Amino acid sequence: MTHHVILGAGPAGVIAAETLRKHAPLDTITIIGDEPEAAYSRMAIPYLLIGKVAEGGTHLRKSSSHFSDLKIQVVQDGASSVDVAKKSITLASGKKVSFDTLLLATGSRPVHPPIAGMDSAGVHTCWTLDDARKIMALAKPGAKVLQMGAGFIGCIIMEALAARGVELSVVEMGDRMVPRMMGPTAGGMIRDWCEKKGVQVFTGTKVEAIAAGKPLKVKLSNGKTVEADLVISATGVRPCIDFLKGSSIACKAGVLTDAHLQTNVPGIYAAGDCAEAMDLLTGTPVVSAIQPNAAEQARIAALNMLDFSKGKSASAELKQVPQINVLDTLGLISTSFGQWQGVKGGEHVEITDAVSGRHLSLQFSGDVLVGCNSVGWTEHVGVMRGLVDGKVHLGEWKTILQNDPTQISEAYLACAQGQGQWAGAQDARRR
């Protein structure tokens, strides 16, 4: 009987296991996760911090018997190594687990910057349920909180902290907020918005040291020292792939996979935050740490694991890895789609209305919109994604958009119908 093993109990691991069970009712399926929790979504942690959900609301599946009902074994342990030749995993406990097919869905973990005092009491990441419990104990109304990092994840955490009524400062080493998602104008507008909402923001600034005590004293590169009852490190994440060293499984930023999510080792696949999946639209591998991509990668990987176990060629293919970010920062909606920084030889147009807090930036390659940024332009979110994902040829509408980017909805409707995109046009307008 085939044994499918999944390393990782997050969204990718859970969806892969359920997909396997749906199509292979008699196969043996094991999920191995390294946290002493029920499988949960990290994206739900901000809602826990705000108080919109209890801990159970973060769980991916609400029934405590969900996995046992599906005859999916769940093991709480970590992986320390993988022996490709023997098809065996050594766990942190010392136990060995054999597999016929293997899915690497170990996700990512926070980056710990080399700053003196990072191990001080009151300094935490915000990544696990245990982190959330510690933060909630300290982030009481009126508490002074300093957050390191104002990227996408950092801004989501910041939103939750602000809702708890803390006195919040944010330090970002980039020259703007959300630097990996937004251009200078958009990132600057988000910073200005946050400051108007009472958040102290330091961009182009690093934390140099943290002095232990109550309060903590945080020394900044701009010469200032900020006192804090709680310091949160949100300086980025990296794929959890250290245990693969020496395994012959090819890795760069993440685990390298092909269009079928298979690694260079037949029968071993990867999905989610730890996977560097091939984006067929750009022809380059990319790590895309967003949950919708993790879910789709897991589904495709699981189907191909089944094909492999039956000696068949892979039938499911990942067409693209959408680069999609929609962010709500204290009520200001911003978006980033596709190659928002532009492409070599491409063209760019943008419009900014500083008074109303609206900004729209469009990037073209030929007559195709390949990427865009927006701030405060919520009515265009769906059509921007539709144009970028659909690689819709704009024809004469490109010139119209270069003269007036706000005509983007009209451009979508005019161009999509003749290129087989019309079916999604009305859905796009509703998003």
Structural summary, described in words:
The protein is α/β, with parallel strands linked by helices. 25% of the residues lie in helices and 29% in strands. It has helices at 11-23, 45-50, 66-69, 129-138, 152-163, 184-196, 291-309, 381-390, 397-403, 408-416, 425-430, and strands at 3-7, 28-33, 72-76, 79-83, 88-91, 96-98, 101-104, 108-110, 123-125, 144-148, 167-172, 200-203, 207-211, 216-220, 225-228, 230-233, 237-239, 255-256, 268-270, 275-279, 284-286, 324-329, 332-338, 347-353, 358-365, 368-375. It has a five-stranded parallel β-sheet with strand order 3-2-1-7-19. A five-stranded parallel β-sheet has the order 9-16-10-11-12, with helices on one face. A hairpin with a 2-residue loop joins strand 25 and strand 26 (368-375). The longest helix is centred in the C-terminal third of the chain and has 19 residues, at 291-309. It is globular.
Describe the sheet with the most strands: 5 strands, parallel
Give the helix level as a range of percent.
25-40%
State the end-to-end distance.
45 Å
CATH fold node name of the largest domain: FAD/NAD(P)-binding domain
Strand percent estimate: 25-35%
Report the CATH architecture of the largest domain: 3-Layer(bba) Sandwich
Poorly predicted sequence stretches spanning 5 or more consecutive residues: 422-431
